[in-house]
TrEMBL record:
<protein>
    <submittedName>
        <fullName>BlaI/MecI/CopY family transcriptional regulator</fullName>
    </submittedName>
</protein>
<dbReference type="InterPro" id="IPR036390">
    <property type="entry name" value="WH_DNA-bd_sf"/>
</dbReference>
<dbReference type="InterPro" id="IPR005650">
    <property type="entry name" value="BlaI_family"/>
</dbReference>
<comment type="similarity">
    <text>Belongs to the BlaI transcriptional regulatory family.</text>
</comment>
<keyword id="KW-0805">Transcription regulation</keyword>
<dbReference type="Pfam" id="PF03965">
    <property type="entry name" value="Penicillinase_R"/>
</dbReference>
<keyword id="KW-0804">Transcription</keyword>
<keyword id="KW-0238">DNA-binding</keyword>
<dbReference type="InterPro" id="IPR036388">
    <property type="entry name" value="WH-like_DNA-bd_sf"/>
</dbReference>
C-alpha cells in the first residue's frame, strides 16, 4: 500500500465519507483550494491506479468508491509513523501527546481501563 499525498488523502476522506461518488460530487465536498475539475479527475484516476478506489462505468462517466478501508489505511500508516517518529514505542507516542497537552489524565485513565479489560 503506497503512502498518499495530502491531496489524495483529502480525496480519500471524502470517498470514505460518501461511500461512492462522481468527480462532481467530490468537487462539491472540497471546501478549500478547489482544484480544477480535470486536476481532480486525474487525482482520482491516480488513486485508482494505486489500488485505493474502484469505479462503476456509466457510459463515459465513472462513479468511484473506496477499495481500501479507512481502518486499513490508518493501521498501516499509524504503524509507520510510530516506527519512524517514536522509535516503535507506544509509550513514547502517548508521552508526546501528554507533554504537548493533547491528552488529559482522564483520557489516559480511560485508555488504561481499555487496556486492562483486554
Amino acid at each position: 500500500m503506497q503512502k498518499l499525498t495530502n491531496k489524495e488523502e483529502e480525496i480519500m476522506q471524502i470517498l470514505w465519507k460518501l461511500k461512492k461518488a462522481f468527480v462532481k460530487d467530490i468537487m462539491e465536498e472540497i471546501t478549500e483550494d478547489k482544484p480544477h475539475y480535470n486536476t481532480l479527475s486525474t487525482i482520482v484516476r491516480n488513486l485508482e491506479e494505486k489500488g485505493y478506489v474502484g469505479y462503476t462505468a456509466y457510459g463515459k462517466t465513472h462513479q468511484y468508491f473506496p477499495i481500501v478501508t479507512i481502518e486499513d489505511y490508518r493501521k498501516k500508516f499509524m504503524n509507520t509513523a510510530i516506527d519512524t517518529y517514536f522509535n516503535s514505542s507506544y509509550k513514547n507516542l502517548v508521552s508526546f501527546f501528554a507533554e504537548e497537552e493533547k491528552i488529559s489524565a482522564e483520557e489516559l485513565r480511560e485508555i488504561l481501563a481499555i487496556i486492562e479489560k483486554k
